[in-house]
Amino acid sequence: MSVVPPGVLGAGLGLLAGIGLLLVVYGSPLWRPRRLAERIDPYLRRDRQSALLAPKQRGGRRWEMIQHLLGPVVGRVIGILERITGGPEQLERRLQLAGRTTSADTFRLEQVVLGLLGMVLGGVLAVLAVTLRGASPLLGLLIIALGALGGVLMRDYLLGFAVRRRAARMAREFPTVADLLALAVAAGESPVAAMERVATSSTGALPEEFAATVAEIRAGATVSEALAGLGTRTPLDSLGRFGEGVAVAIERGTPLAEVLRAQAQDARETSKRDLLEAAGRREIFMLVPVVFFVLPLVIVFAIFPGLAVLEISL
């Protein structure tokens, strides 16, 4: 077992201590002038859809503490993350599609924290590889870099997975919600009252979006604008077409109940087609247990009696 030379270990520890002291001095509030954007930021709205006097969302004491501790480093790391995973506009769009209420800064902070955790895990693996296996220090540095990159990309993958899961959930809820809207409109209620009834009497991702749409209409937006916003906030393409169809039916005076029933029927046909496509993609995976488990047992049960007879005859 090879041991790290004391000179190399001391040099590494001294380098880490020097970098830590440099970051502490560089990130001190005495050396950071407060910019104009930071001073006027509390008086600005978070986005175009939020109210002017809405309280700023906070990520909790834990994230505030991490922000204060890693503040000098996070700003530079966020610039690198934006080059890897997309700009702030694209990230805000993905967070909106995932139904998250956190800001882009909080998400970037989570990426930095996971990157640091991956770096620590990679550092442990690198030390074990260098001390126990005698690997090259360059390989250890590569393992640390891969751990940090893996933590950052893992958080981005989880966001994409949340978007896909929310889209699948809305696709399951959409036919039922469209039928409820059609029944409410056929009973004599207005489109806004029908959406409000569905939002208050149902639970799920889609009723929450209808509640947000009703809130926009109550705040002064037109029905067409609110329905168009419904399509942009959700990852489901059929829901965007639904909003456009309902808006056109309201503007032209088309019977809305028939339009909603047609939308529900189209949603069911789309779900059936998606189910058939998923079954076709999983057909190969369904053959795996047959080929590797069932077929060998059938061959063994077919050949074993013949071998037993041959041994008895011999």
Overview of the structural elements:
The chain is mostly helical. The protein has twelve helices and no strands. Helix 3 crosses helix 5 and helix 10 packs antiparallel against helix 11. The longest helix is centred in the middle third of the chain and has 50 residues. The chain is flat. The relative contact order is 0.06. About 4% of the residues have low confidence.
Which outline best applies? flat
In the predicted model, the low-confidence regions spanning at least 5 consecutive residues are 46-59
Class inferred from helices and paired strands: mainly alpha
- Give the beta-strand count: 0
> What's the story with the biggest beta sheet?
none
Helix content range: over 70%
Strand content: under 5%
Rg on CA atoms, Å: 29 Å
Q: N- to C-terminal separation?
A: 58 Å
What is the mean pLDDT? 76
User: Helix segment count?
Assistant: 12
Keywords: Cell membrane, Membrane, Transmembrane, Transmembrane helix
Pfam families: T2SSF (PF00482)
InterPro entries: T2SS_GspF_dom (IPR018076)
Main location: membrane
List keywords for this structure.
314 residues; mainly alpha; 79% helix
Topology (SSEs and partners):
Elements lengths: L5 H21 L9 H5 L20 H25 L2 H10 L6 H29 L4 H50 L4 H11 L3 H14 L4 H11 L3 H16 L3 H26 L1 H31 L1
Give the gist of this structure.
The model is unreliable at 46-59 (pLDDT under 50).
